[in-house]
Amino acid sequence: MVVQVLLALDRPETEALVRHALANPDMVLRRTMPDRPLWDQVRQTHDLVVISHSLLGHAALDGIRALRLQSNPPSVVILTDSMDPSESAAFLAAGCNAVLDPSLVNGTLEQIFQSILSRRRQEWEEEYAGRRGDSPPSLNDFTSCAPAMQNFMAMVRHVVDADTSLLMLGETGVGKERLARAIHAESRRNRGPFVPIHCGALPETLLESELFGHEKGAFTGATASRRGLFELAEGGTIFLDEVGDMPPHLQVKLLRFLQEHEVLRVGSERPVRVDARVMGATNRDLPKEVEGGKFREDLYFRLSVVTLTIPPLRERREEIPFLVQKLINAFQSRLGRQVQGINPDALEALIRYPWPGNIRELMNNIERAVLLCDEDRIALAHLPESIRKAQSAPPHVGHIHPCAPNGFPEEWMQKPLSEASRDILERFEQTYLSTLLRTTHGRIGETARRAGIHPRSLYAKMKRYGLHKEDFRPGRCR
Ligand SMILES: Nc1ncnc2c1ncn2[C@@H]1O[C@H](COP(=O)(O)OP(=O)(O)OP(=O)(O)O)[C@@H](O)[C@H]1O
Ligand SMILES: [Mg+2]
């Protein structure tokens, strides 16, 4: 997320200190204009406003209180090297986030800004992921004409209502959580809650009681019984983010849940039945974690019955033009800008850039460009150097057929129905079988049984699609 900061500072030395503390490519810093009233400028869309005490004027407290009534008000930091404690308390009570001495040393200023901004970012991401006005996650977000996505989505649609547990894999920022939310929203469970938890974010004991709940007196401080997130997900879905980070002892409890649909609160002998669908996600190479003894093999088998590996953005570049326009529309209204589109050379650069941070990185860059753009189209100059350079790089893939707005590829319309259908079916079968073979580690009997086909027919299909069982043995990466 790009952070917009407004600086209203009285001395060049103070400004230098603040700029140093906020030096980061994702920050857009602006100075107030001396010829316009300060509070009018502060009220515009910003994430953070840093003001020198001497510039506040006598209506400062009212100004800060009024900001709090705005939707999405900025965080406010006041800088002063001398303020009496009661005045500083009044500012904090009015809603100012911090009153700081600008000469704080050893990175303290930087740390305080970072902590204010990371809290803000978290709130914003929660809002975006959940109930952000423009688009709640839906499977249509993933509809695409990129061949890699068509196979993938055929598989996804197959499992939406299957009610099995799902394991989402893929690079950072590809949309694992968004896809999990979309599947939940379109499944029969959508009247129930979607309960996300980051398994790496809490120490083991806290994570255990957070997930499974506890009985009164189970440990010091457990003054009342409490339900865990599994129980809270009753009728809905629990999303275990970074499931590869789960400590071994909790992996056993998770396996038990997947097998028995029961949880045991900490300090209890009596299992509680819970009806919740489990979705897990991870960036880690789980088979490798299994080999290294960090992740239980039995849990891996149970959890990976259906594995959805979201292709990285660079393997579905066809989507970029449509995604970019969608993001421009969303950000121009959120940021109050007039930007309508993008110049062809800038779009070309976006298509060629390899996107290691995937859709999240694309979003950040479009947001930044919309913010920097004073014209009605984003130009190359609004993109960072690393992306601009990609414009002249050779393309990573062959010709790109951009998606039509409904995600339906032109290329299909050039073929008769029977041929286009066969094409899709083959791509689907290939992805289905390679995913299943990965899950079974290349075991033919098991794969054929799960797919409901004869092993001979499986062999024939594998031959047709160039799949070799040896490639799916543990330790081989596919
Ligand atoms: N197809 C899509 N359409 C629109 N927005 C998307 C799409 N896929 C992902 N996003 C957005 O991109 C951002 C990153 O997605 P998400 O958080 O789901 O990624 P992730 O795979 O869980 O990443 P990480 O591994 O870093 O946790 C989110 O803001 C999400 O809403
Ligand atoms: Mg995630």
Report on the architecture of this protein:
The chain is α/β, with parallel strands linked by helices. The protein has 4 domains: 127 residues, Response regulator (Rossmann fold, 3-Layer(aba) Sandwich), CATH 3.40.50; 150 residues, Rossmann fold (3-Layer(aba) Sandwich); 87 residues, Orthogonal Bundle (Helicase, Ruva Protein, domain 3), CATH 1.10.8; 58 residues, Orthogonal Bundle (Arc Repressor Mutant, subunit A). It is 44% helix and 12% strand. It has a 5-stranded parallel beta sheet with strand order 2-1-3-4-5. Strand 4, helix 4 and strand 5 form a beta-alpha-beta unit. Helix 6 crosses helix 18, helix 10 packs across helix 12 and helix 13 packs across helix 15. The radius of gyration is 26 Å and the shape is globular. About 1% of the residues have low confidence. The structure holds adenosine-5'-triphosphate and magnesium ion. Magnesium ion binds next to helix 7. The site of adenosine-5'-triphosphate has 17 residues, from helix 5, helix 7 and helix 15.
Topology at a glance:
Elements: E1 3-8, H1 12-21, E2 27-31, H2 38-42, E3 48-52, H3 60-69, E4 75-79, H4 85-94, E5 98-100, H5 108-129, H6 147-159, E6 166-169, H7 176-186, E7 194-198, H8 204-212, H9 229-232, E8 237-241, H10 248-260, E9 262-263, E10 272-273, E11 277-282, H11 286-291, H12 297-303, E12 307-309, H13 320-335, E13 341-342, H14 344-352, H15 358-372, E14 377-378, H16 385-390, H17 410-413, H18 417-439, H19 444-451, H20 455-465
Helix pairs in contact: 6-18, 10-12, 13-15, 19-20
